[in-house]
Design a protein that fits this description.
Layout (H helix, E strand, L loop, with lengths): L1 E2 L2 H4 L20 H5 L2 H14 L12 H7 L4 H10 L4 E2 L5 H6 L7 H14 L8 H9 L7 H10 L4 H20 L10 H6 L6 H9 L5 E6 L6 E5 L2 H10 L2 E3 L4 E3 L1
Parallel strand pairs: 3-6
Antiparallel strand pairs: 1-2, 3-4, 5-6
């Protein structure tokens, strides 16, 4: 192994100098700033060791020797060398290449990331049955996790034939609430709607009652009596009936002539 560009930056008349040069360019080197403290410390020590070489190539000894010189383990030296690939030049015969089985150093973290990306991309797409797909497409709001919803659907006691009509009734009821200015609750995720058996909600049972025609109520007053209410199916029925009975519409109420 060698220090990259050693002869360009570290040139001495005598070998084994008592000091080495550190250039200001390192302040603008992003690779330097990305190093952790331990690896940066090791790099400085490798520069010092390289200055002991009898030639000007910046050679550094094998991993085993470095581990002894730096009073650490071979594995830790390997880990630091991997982090310092920006400053280290490898030969095919280097011990590092033999130990890692790869002439190009690469951190285990980078390898793991690539493997995870490949595994994610190779996941088999789940195919859902047509009945569940129909339920999924018609369900309003945010449906949530399709996979979780399907799990609950398979456990449900009823099927899509009962679920879809129940949802349609609830949609009608909520629309009527909004139209009349009432508060309409939001839709839960389909997974929760199924697991909580929301097809049994009272809302779905009240739709029929809410859609019944509204009765027509009017105020009538007989001579010498307080006004009272009378109910008819339609406004037309109220007008024809009260007119026939001799009542006159005054606007606020019907009075007996």
């Amino acid at each position: 192994m060698k220090i990259k560009n050693w002869s360009q930056f570290q040139h001495y008349k005598n070998r084994k100098p008592p000091w080495i040069k550190v250039y200001r360019d390192i302040l603008d080197d992003p690779e330097w700033h990305e190093l952790n403290g331990a690896s940066a410390k090791v790099l400085i020590m490798l520069w010092l060791i390289a200055s002991e070489s009898d030639n000007s190539t910046g050679e550094i000894p094998a991993i085993k020797t470095l581990a002894f010189r730096l009073r650490t383990t071979e594995q830790e030296i390997n880990d630091h060398i991997i982090q310092l690939s920006h400053w280290i030049k490898y030969d095919a015969s280097d011990l590092l290449a033999e130990r890692l089985h790869d002439a190009i150093p690469e951190t285990e973290r980078e390898t793991d990331k690539r493997q995870r990306r490949n595994s994610v991309g190779s996941k088999k797409k789940i195919t859902y049955p047509d009945d569940f797909e129909a339920l999924w497409k018609m369900y309003p709001g945010t449906a949530g996790s399709k996979k979780d919803a399907f799990k609950e659907y398979k456990k449900a006691e009823i099927g899509v034939e009962e679920m879809i009509p129940a949802i349609e009734k609830q949609i009608a009821f909520k629309n009527q609430q909004k139209k009349s200015g009432e508060f309409a609750s939001s839709w839960p995720h389909l997974c929760r709607w199924i697991s909580k058996e929301r097809w049994n909600d009272k809302l779905s049972l009240e739709v029929e009652a809410s859609q019944k025609p509204q009765l027509f109520t009017v105020m009538v007053r007989d001579p010498g009596k307080s006004p009272s209410q009378r109910t008819f199916k339609t406004e037309a029925e109220a007008i024809s009936t009260l007119t026939a009975e001799g009542y006159l519409n005054t606007g606020a109420e019907w009075r007996k002539k």
